């Protein structure tokens, strides 16, 4: 519990910092650009996800009886799935935004998207919210069916049997989570490939004037962010698959290590985003002492 709590609170603090800085800038400037809007929504989703995940882990380890009270488990699983998918979708949106905004392809489709990307971002938010809401409702339904099948098994001696039954019901949720990870992962991969191709083309055409150098720096900064997405998504996806395998095999210690490792993703990646943004990095350096 101590390890999970320490990890969760670290991620909560990092994302709370991200949200507070962007909200302060929003109040001062009365507006936010598209990049800041995506970062703000991403920080909010990760903050809520970590809070709910920590509460679920705390109840699962310390007070497991409360998870068999009707609607508690269902609501926790539903909200956790909702914010997890929001996190995935908004992360993928950020990668796509970097790719379209910075890439310098002459393709008519890229040119059109580059001019309309600021208007497209709210629709991406809307689509992500609808998809995450649908996944949350499905997760609630799966958890509710598992609870209904296990409501007659409430004795402490039957907990192991209850968990076996619940694993079978939660397998579809693992499948849905895998589908969400795979779709977001593909978006990140394509964004990284397109941006890398754009960087390569720009490097060969680069001249020695300052505008070109600034464009080069923007490419490199975006590539660092997207590659960090790629690495973190890869690790997170592998952990999801391993978690699905070891949960069904009742390997408690391995499952615990995988869950602990997965909790590092929202905090560590948000920290990478903070250090890749000059304004956020400067603010963090100022308040750390």
UniProtKB/TrEMBL annotation:
<dbReference type="GO" id="GO:0004930">
    <property type="term" value="F:G protein-coupled receptor activity"/>
</dbReference>
<feature type="transmembrane region" description="Helical">
    <location>
        <begin position="222"/>
        <end position="247"/>
    </location>
</feature>
<feature type="transmembrane region" description="Helical">
    <location>
        <begin position="39"/>
        <end position="62"/>
    </location>
</feature>
<keyword id="KW-0716">Sensory transduction</keyword>
<keyword id="KW-0675">Receptor</keyword>
<keyword id="KW-0472">Membrane</keyword>
<protein>
    <recommendedName>
        <fullName>Taste receptor type 2</fullName>
    </recommendedName>
</protein>
<feature type="transmembrane region" description="Helical">
    <location>
        <begin position="253"/>
        <end position="276"/>
    </location>
</feature>
<dbReference type="GO" id="GO:0016020">
    <property type="term" value="C:membrane"/>
</dbReference>
<dbReference type="InterPro" id="IPR007960">
    <property type="entry name" value="TAS2R"/>
</dbReference>
<feature type="transmembrane region" description="Helical">
    <location>
        <begin position="120"/>
        <end position="140"/>
    </location>
</feature>
<keyword id="KW-1133">Transmembrane helix</keyword>
<keyword id="KW-0297">G-protein coupled receptor</keyword>
<keyword id="KW-0919">Taste</keyword>
<keyword id="KW-0807">Transducer</keyword>
<dbReference type="GO" id="GO:0033038">
    <property type="term" value="F:bitter taste receptor activity"/>
</dbReference>
<dbReference type="Pfam" id="PF05296">
    <property type="entry name" value="TAS2R"/>
</dbReference>
<feature type="transmembrane region" description="Helical">
    <location>
        <begin position="174"/>
        <end position="201"/>
    </location>
</feature>
<feature type="transmembrane region" description="Helical">
    <location>
        <begin position="82"/>
        <end position="100"/>
    </location>
</feature>
<feature type="transmembrane region" description="Helical">
    <location>
        <begin position="6"/>
        <end position="27"/>
    </location>
</feature>
<comment type="similarity">
    <text>Belongs to the G-protein coupled receptor T2R family.</text>
</comment>
<keyword id="KW-0812">Transmembrane</keyword>
């Amino acid at each position: 519990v101590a390890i999970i709590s320490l990890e969760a609170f670290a991620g909560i603090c990092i994302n709370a910092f991200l949200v507070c800085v962007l909200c302060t800038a929003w109040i001062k400037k009365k507006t936010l650009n598209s990049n800041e809007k995506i970062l703000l929504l991403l920080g909010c989703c990760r903050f809520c996800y970590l809070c709910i995940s920590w509460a679920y882990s705390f109840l699962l380890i310390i007070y497991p009886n409360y998870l068999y009270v009707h609607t508690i488990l269902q609501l926790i699983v539903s909200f956790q799935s909702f914010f997890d998918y929001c996190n995935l979708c908004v992360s993928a949106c950020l990668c796509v935004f970097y790719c379209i905004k910075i890439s310098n392809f002459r393709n008519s489709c890229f040119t059109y998207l580059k001019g309309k990307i600021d208007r497209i971002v709210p629709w991406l938010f809307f689509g992500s919210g609808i998809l995450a809401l649908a996944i949350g409702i499905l997760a609630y339904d799966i958890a509710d069916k598992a609870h209904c099948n296990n409501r007659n098994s409430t004795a402490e001696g039957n907990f192991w049997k209850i968990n076996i039954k619940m694993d079978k019901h939660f397998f579809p949720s693992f499948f849905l989570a895998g589908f969400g990870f795979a779709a977001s992962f593909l978006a990140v991969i394509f964004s990284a490939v397109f941006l890398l191709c754009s960087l390569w083309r720009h490097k060969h055409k680069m001249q020695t004037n300052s505008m070109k150098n600034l464009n080069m720096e923007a490419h490199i900064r975006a590539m660092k962010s997207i590659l960090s997405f790629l690495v973190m998504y890869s690790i997170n996806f592998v952990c999801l698959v391993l978690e699905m395998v070891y949960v069904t095999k009742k390997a408690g210690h391995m499952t615990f290590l995988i869950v602990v490792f997965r909790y590092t993703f929202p905090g560590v990646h948000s920290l990478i985003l903070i250090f890749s943004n000059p304004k956020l990095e400067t603010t963090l350096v100022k308040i750390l002492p």
